[in-house]
Design goal:
Layout: H1 8-20, H2 25-33, H3 50-75, E1 79-90, H4 91-97, E2 103-108, E3 115-120, H5 122-132, H6 148-169, E4 178-183, E5 197-207, E6 210-219, H7 220-223, H8 232-236, H9 245-256, E7 262-265, H10 273-277, E8 295-299, E9 302-312, E10 315-323
Antiparallel strand pairs: 1-5, 2-3, 2-4, 3-6, 5-6, 7-8, 8-9, 9-10
């Protein structure tokens, strides 16, 4: 029972069995102390953590949304694509699980090594092609004898969808997907060794009234360089990018050319509303500031300097006498 979490009903049933004598507590302790042996299948090696699988699921959920928008616009019909599952299995097991004749798009993802496989169920592929040819979107499974025109239409369609795969992956890697091969028989396709671990993301796909699956098979060799980026710590941390010296220099030059509003405050005064209402042309307001006291110089409404009024080249000017401490953005 070690390593398992019991529900409240299971706990109540266990306590009841001990209290009624149906189960001996000593035997329970003895059973618990015995070593549990778990069978490990070396052919089905788990090379990705659950956290990393969840990250890949998030990436392809975004890809599914982008594909839904893309195919809806291209086919002008109802399209719904969503992630059904994400699992890691041996490559051989994946090949056995897909139809003997299907649509296989193989593409490279430089700068990453290896190739990625997108398997499209023939029902879905033919429904797409029927819509693009002006039909209602019905599916006819005759994948074993595709014509050159049909092959070209399908290849072009799925090649254009790779742009959205690049966009979905840009959070962890900047890839440039390139269509490398198009095949219909999985037995003729050997991307990696049979026991190589691959991640298979299955997408539930609906085109009009036709439903099927799109499977994306990603070998371990492709993901190996970016495995650290699939952890939750990478997703949570702030992405800091060091600026190039040229960028910093250009930023400084632009800042130096920025205009700043400068104002010199001659003084201030407080009057009552009654006095304000009685004011007329020619009235004089007495300021709190005296001629001997320095003037406050404000930069963007923030006091920065003390100065005195004067003239320079027959123009009114102010001379800076000292810098105010604490003259930050809050005006303190």
């Amino acid at each position: 029972m070690s390593g398992e979490v019991l529900s409240q009903s299971e706990i109540d049933a266990l306590l009841s069995a001990i209290s009624t004598g149906e189960m001996d507590a000593d035997e329970l302790k003895k059973e618990t102390s015995e070593k549990k042996v778990k069978v490990y299948d070396f052919k089905r090696a788990l090379r990705f953590s659950k956290d990393q699988i969840r990250s890949l699921t998030r990436i392809h959920e975004n890809f599914a949304r982008l594909l839904t928008t893309f195919f809806s616009a291209q086919l002008r019909t109802y399209v719904q694509i969503s992630v059904a599952s994400a699992d890691q299995i041996p490559y051989e097991e994946f090949i056995r699980s897909i139809p003997k004749m299907t649509i296989l798009n193989v593409f490279e993802v430089p700068p990453l090594d290896g190739r990625v496989l997108m398997e499209v169920n023939p029902n879905i592929a033919y429904a797409m092609m029927d819509r693009m040819m002006g039909g209602k979107g019905s599916s006819i499974n005759k994948v074993e004898n595709l014509t050159e025109i049909e092959t070209k239409i399908m290849t072009t369609t799925f090649e254009r969808s790779l742009e959205y795969l690049r966009e979905a992956w840009e959070t962890i890697a900047e890839i440039e997907p390139i269509m490398a091969d198009f095949e219909v028989n999985p037995q003729f396709l050997q991307m990696v060794s049979p026991n190589e671990t691959v991640v298979v993301i299955s997408l539930n796909t609906t085109i009009g009234e036709t439903t099927g699956m799109i499977n994306i098979c990603i070998p371990h060799v492709v993901l190996e360089p970016i495995i650290p980026k699939l952890s939750v710590h990478y997703w949570m941390q702030t992405d800091k990018k060091d600026r190039e010296p040229q960028e910093v220099e250009l930023l400084e030059k632009r800042l130096k050319r920025a205009n700043l509003p400068i104002a010199v405050e001659l003084g201030n005064a407080e009057i009552t509303i009654q006095d304000f209402l009685m004011m007329d042309v020619g009235d004089v307001i007495e300021l709190k500031q005296t001629i001997e006291n320095p003037l406050t110089i404000k930069i963007a409404e923030v006091p920065k300097f003390k100065g005195q009024a004067g003239k320079l080249n027959k123009k009114i000017a102010v001379q800076i006498l000292e810098t105010l401490k604490g003259g930050d953005d809050n005006g303190e």
